[in-house]
Amino acid sequence: MRVFLTVIGVAGILITGACSGPKKALHHTAVIKDPAVLEQRADSLFFAAQRSKMLGDFRTAITQYSDYLRLNKNNPTAYYELARLFMEVQNPGYALGFARRAASMDPDNHWFQITLADAFAVNEQFDSAAAVFDKLTARYPENEDYLYNKAMFLAKANKPASALAVFSQLEKKTGVVEEVIYQKQRLLLKMSQVDAAATEIRKLIDNNPQELRYYFLLAEVYDANDRTADAIAIYNDVLRKDPDNARALLGLATYAKKSGDKAGYWAYLTRAFANPTYSIDEKVAYVYPYLQMMQLDSTKVEEGLELTSLIVNAHPKEAKAYALRGDMFSQADMLDSAQQNYTKALSLDSSRFSVWYQLMWIYSRKEDPNALLALSNTVTDKFPKEFMGYYFKGVASFLLQQYPAAIGALNKALEIGNGEKKFMADVQSLLGDAYHATGQHLQSDSSYEKALLLRPDDALVLNNYSYYLSLRGENLVHAAEMSKRSLDLEPESPTYMDTYAWILFRQDKFEDARHWIEKALQFPEAQQNPNVLEHYGDILFNLKDVTKAVEYWQKAKDKGATSVGLVRKIAEKKYIQ
Q1: A single Pfam family, by name (predicted)?
Q2: What band does 497 get if pLDDT is binned at 50, 70 and 90?
Q3: 568 belongs to a structural domain
Q4: Engineered SS bond to 163: which of 127, 154, 374, 377, CB 3.0-4.6 Å?
């Protein structure tokens, strides 16, 4: 059966030629009185309109048909064509007007009647559309499509009982047909007649007991109406026919979970996942939420890993199975296993940048810059337009103290420029560090400023930028403001306390500097940091406590401090800048 209602697919065309008001003529035109010439010109306009319509130029076609009607108002086909065109350009009012005219001029033409029904429908006058098909059904009683459309429009007119009666009339003619039964059960559910709807679906099952779709349709009806026991019975019927049916197993797993039967839930779920005929995409979609749940519930880690193990066993040649398992291990912070699964996924399908990205992320988390550099070189060769490949290449090069290479990779990432905002800020921050390491201070300062524009409350950038300014003795007021801001953001950081103390020292605010450096030294990690110890010695010397200053300079040396002049400070017992 076919529904005749036209699907409107073309929108947004402005109608001017047929809908605008009369225009004042700029020139007088000769009046054609010869009927033969008029007929010839009209025919020319009609066929031109047909060509424009076939080419999809609906605006021009409407204008040409309208011009044709000025010469020949008695051709119903022109009104019919204009009705169809106005439906195409989504002007339902005009469509209905022209459709009425065509249908009234030639009431025996069933195409004109169908167009009138379509026009009523696009104007949401579904009762009237149904009435048109009622007349067509009376005229063509053998046509099942007309009866079907009458029922459909009655349903759209919110007359479910009337629509149901027509579908039942149609069923007597066609026998048990899936589409008719489906529409009947849908109407019965709308009328809250669940058992009657189920009876309709059982007709399909009785007619074709091997078609499992019908069982699932019935189970959905029961489930939607809280008839849990009936739905479970249907799923068990399916399993008697197909013991490994994944959809039935998942349905039963859902009910077991709702009832608190964890063992039953897990048993049904694992049976479904072990089935290799159950779509891997559906399995992935089912398991993916575990990646979020694992953050809130540690018990989900074991479940997620077991499910991904079943997916891998059922689909050993599918890269996405290993990629998902890698994601699961990564989320659980089991980095070696994550790396192994991502590598396996890439051996099966190396075209997925997302997997390469995850593997680079793993190497960065494992602090393995050599492996990260080798991998990122492969990625940038394979995916030269991917921002993150160059970002990780820059990270690896920086960690290996290959600063010019880091600068090159990071600037390439900026040139590509399609990274997330948070990573763009990271690139600028790391560029600031790399430029500082190579003595390019203007570029370093510029990069830090750009990073802070993107992420103004990045405590690490505020600290590093302010510290490097203090080392150069430049812009110390701005350095102090940034350093204090980093402490406002992370008040328990001894590193940031040390930076702030050092900036105060460079401003000759020795007592304030002592206050902050001693706050830092209350933390064990600061007591082991040679730079902090040396800074404390410098501050103490400028506060005239030479003995204690030398003591802390010596402690700094013992902890591995290698700053220029430290040995002279100890030997000469004086501060050397």
Answers
A1: TPR_8
A2: very high
A3: yes
A4: 154
